[in-house]
Design brief:
Layout lengths: L6 E5 L4 H12 L3 E6 L2 H14 L4 E5 L5 H15 L4 E4 L13 H29 L2 E6 L2 H4 L6 H21 L4 E6 L7 H7 L7 H7 L5 H14 L3 E2 L4 H11 L1 H16 L2
Parallel strand pairs: 1-2, 1-4, 2-3, 4-5, 5-6, 6-7
Helix pairs in contact: 1-9, 3-4, 4-6, 10-11
């Protein structure tokens, strides 16, 4: 897809990867809806983009943990700019630790990391099928391809996010709907910084030991390249593909390696 002139929506776009995606899409010539539960951040990004090219960005404050909120986002976006060409379900949370994590953390993790993707798709797919085209992108994580040491809710929901994206591609790929899934390792975002300061959620130390920590702009570059090629996996960290090969072909070895990494970083 050539992003020039396209109507795009990015969730979780007030900062981090989402902001970098919104800025890069806009640079490529797209109109961009910046959705975030932090309304001040969303409107601030939109104002900066509109200062570069007037009338091409819209900030929307929204908490995507309900179906109604996802429908409202799509309705507002299309009411302002017209039909959505590309929807990037990027908003995510990293919560919880092991199986004793409170139920409310599991619920929020599923609502934001998984259900928001399918709720968005529920209201996007009919229109895309009618037009014969549309692009659904989502952010899962290397944790969805491999696993996450430290947080069960994060690891499980990111696996589910990847599975949903794969299902979307299989089901609608021959009917004009393209699908890509972003699966990075460490990225210099508020989520990673928060993990450094908390025992809750994905471990920042694990991420740093596993590979390089990229800047959000570097991730956005990889996303745009993949969207141009219209291929599925977006892997800004190439080592993720190599780890996945070991997981697929030598699973016991991979599990053993993950246990060693856990002991090295977490001490057990």
């Amino acid at each position: 897809m050539d992003l020039a002139g396209k109507m795009t929506v990015v969730t979780g776009a007030g900062n981090g990867i989402g902001r970098a995606l919104a800025e890069r899409f806009h640079h490529e010539g797209a109109k961009v809806v910046i959705a975030d539960r932090d309304g001040t951040a969303a409107h601030g990004v939109a104002a900066e983009l509109n200062a570069l090219r007037a009338g091409t960005a819209l900030g929307i404050e929204v908490d995507l943990s309900t179906e109604a909120a996802n429908k409202s986002l799509i309705d507002q976006a299309e009411g302002f700019f017209g039909p959505i060409d590309l929807f990037f379900a990027n908003a995510g949370v990293g919560l919880g630790t092991d199986v004793t994590s409170p139920e409310e953390l599991w619920d929020v993790s599923f609502d934001i990391n998984v259900h928001a993707h399918r709720w968005a798709a529920k209201y996007l797919v009919p229109g895309w099928l009618a037009r014969g085209e549309g692009y659904f992108c989502s952010t899962a994580s290397a944790a969805g391809v491999l696993a996450q040491i430290g947080s069960a809710p994060y690891s499980v929901t990111k696996h589910a996010a990847l599975a949903f994206a794969e299902w979307m591609s299989i089901t609608y790929g021959a009917r004009g709907i393209r699908v890509s899934c972003l699966c990075p390792q460490g990225v210099n975002t508020n989520m990673l910084k928060g993990a450094d300061q908390s025992n809750d959620g994905p471990s920042g130390n694990v991420v740093r030991v596993a590979g390089a920590v990229l800047e959000p702009a570097e991730v956005a570059d990889a996303v745009v390249r993949t969207i141009r090629d219209e291929t599925f996996f977006i892997l800004p960290h190439p080592e993720v593909a190599e780890f996945a090969k070991v997981k697929a072909t030598e699973h016991e070895r991979w599990l053993g390696g993950m246990r060693k990494l856990q002991k090295r970083v977490l001490g057990f």
